Amino acid sequence: METNLTSKTLVRGAFEGVELQRLPFVPWVFRHAARLEQVPLTRMYADPTRYVKCLQNARKLYNYDAVISGFDPSLDAEIAGLPVKWQGDYETPANISRPGFDMARLVDINVLGASRTSRFGTVIESLRRIQTVSGSSVALAAVVSGPLTLAANLTGHDPARDFEASKPAIETAAGFILKVVQVYCQLELDVIAFAESAAAKLTAEQLGWLQPVVSPILNTVRFYNAWSVLLPGDASPETLGGLIDLGFDAIVAAGIDVVTWNKIQGGRTCVLGKAIPAGVLAGPHAALQQYLKAELPGCAGTATFLTTDGEVPPDTPPENIRLVVDMISR
Predict the structure, then answer these.
(1) 255 pLDDT tier (thresholds 50, 70, 90)
(2) pLDDT bucket at 98, cuts 50 / 70 / 90
(3) Model confidence at 299, in pLDDT bands (50, 70, 90)?
(4) Global pTM?
(5) Could you give the CA distance from residue 58 to residue 60 in angstroms, rounded to a whole number?
(6) Is pLDDT above 50 for 110?
(7) CA dihedral for 294, 31, 147, 139, sign (positive or negative)
(8) Do the strands 66-68 and 139-145 form a parallel or antiparallel pair, or are they unpaired?
(9) What is the pLDDT, as a whole number, of residue 301?
(10) CB atoms < 10 A from the CB of 222, how many?
(11) Distance (Å) of CA 164 to CA 168, 169, 215
(12) What is the mean pLDDT of the chain?
C-alpha cells in the first residue's frame, strides 16, 4: 500500500474503488472559511485574491482533502437573472424570487460570458488560481444547485409539490445547470456536487422521469474525467435506493454504515459519502468524538469518503474539524 498519497489521489481513489490507507475527508467548507479570516461574504466575493486566501488558508489549517468552489445556491439563480439580497456578514445571500419568472429566458443566457463578470467571475477566477497552485495535489470541487432547487429558487415554487406541472421548468433548469457545469468542468475539477434536497421527496415514478433529465449533466461530468456527487439532504434508506438509480457517482448520506449502504446498492455502482451531520460537527467536542468512534470503524479501505451532510456551519469550532482529521489519520 502506498504511504505518500496526495489528497487528490485519495479523493479520486475513493471513487475508483481503490483500497486506501485512510478515508478522504471532503467537508463543504465555505462560509466557515470566510469566518476564519473575518472576511464578510460581500468582500470575499468582490476579490478573487481574497476569495482564494480564505479557501486556501482554511484547507491549510485543517488539512482536509478538497477545496470547494463555494456553497451558495443564490449564485446559480443570480446567473439566471435573479437579484440577491445580502444578509448578515456570514449568511448565505437570499434570492428575490419572482412568481411568474419566465424560465424560457434561461436558454439564451450566456453562462460562459457570465463566468467573466460579477460573483460568478470571482468564483471561476479563484478556482483557476487554486488549480494552478494546488491542483496537482489537492482535489477541487464545485457545488451547484440541482434542477429542482434552481427551479424553486427562480419561481418561488417547490416543484416537488406539483411535480407534473413543474416538469417543463425542471427540464429548462437542467439545461441551464448543464451550461454552468460545463464552465466548471473546463477548469479540470475532480468533483461536481449537486445540492438537491428536493430529490429525497420524490416518488420512484418521479425519480424515473428525472433520470434522463439529469443524465446529460452527469455524462458531461464524466466526459471531463470528474465525478458527480448528489447532496440530497435528509434521505431515508428507502429513499436512497431510488436516488442511486439517478446515476450519480456518489451520494452523501448521514446515519448510513457501509454494510447498510452495500445492501441499499444491491449491486449498483455508487460511492457512499458518509456524512457527519452539521449539528454534530458544530456541537460539543466530546459528543463529536463519541460519534466518530462509533461511525468510523469499518469505513477504511472501502469505496467511501467522509464528508458533511451540508455546508459546514460558519461558527463550527475549529477544534472539532481538527478532531475529525486527527481521527481519520490514526
Answers:
(1) confident
(2) confident
(3) confident
(4) 0.95
(5) 5
(6) yes
(7) negative
(8) parallel
(9) 64
(10) 14
(11) 9, 10, 19
(12) 93
User: Which pLDDT belongs to residue 235?
Assistant: 86
The span from the CA of 281 to the CA of 3, in Å, is 28
- The structural domains of the chain, ordered by start, are 7-328 (3.20.20.210)
Q: Report residue 68: phi and psi, to 5°.
A: -105, 160
Contact 81, 105 (CB under 8 A): yes
Q: Which cell numbers hold the place of 142?
A: 464545485
